[in-house]
């Protein structure tokens, strides 16, 4: 039974990710002023402890946003600033933001 539920959830996430609206994500990033902390190009955050978002995997970014929205609960993330910013976002908003940020040229490097 758990495998069926997991398959349905993963299928729904994949469908939502494939239907992501990058232009809508760009508008959301501007509206929610993400660049004020993560930098105008999302590669140069104002504080070195803040993550670079440009070029990051879209599904990772979406998962991180959902974790901030969950907060201190299971599989959540605790950051008062991010928690406040993600509360008004819908699941669709988070998918679109992840798709937009993931589509940007990034400076992230994967070691082989």
Task: Give an overview of the whole structure.
The protein has 112 residues and is mainly alpha-helical. It has 6 helices and no strands. The chain has helices at 2-18, 22-31, 35-38, 58-70, 80-86, 91-103.
Give a quick set of tags describing it.
mainly alpha; globular; Cytochrome Bc1 Complex, Chain D, domain 2; 112 residues
What percentage of the residues does DSSP assign to strands (E)?
under 5%
Round the Cα radius of gyration to an integer and report it: 14 Å
- Whole-number count of domains: 1
Instruction: Using the alpha-carbon principal axes, give the shape.
Output: globular
| Percent of residues in helices | 55-70%
Q: In total, how many beta strands?
A: 0
CATH homologous group name = Cytochrome c-like domain
Head-to-tail CA distance between termini: 38 Å
Query: Which structural class fits the helix and strand makeup?
Result: mainly alpha
The largest sheet is: none
Mean pLDDT: 88
Count of discrete alpha- or pi-helical segments spanning 4 or more residues: 6
Low-pLDDT runs of 5+ residues are none
CATH architecture: Orthogonal Bundle
CATH fold field value: Cytochrome Bc1 Complex, Chain D, domain 2
SSE run: HHHHHH
CATH class: Mainly Alpha
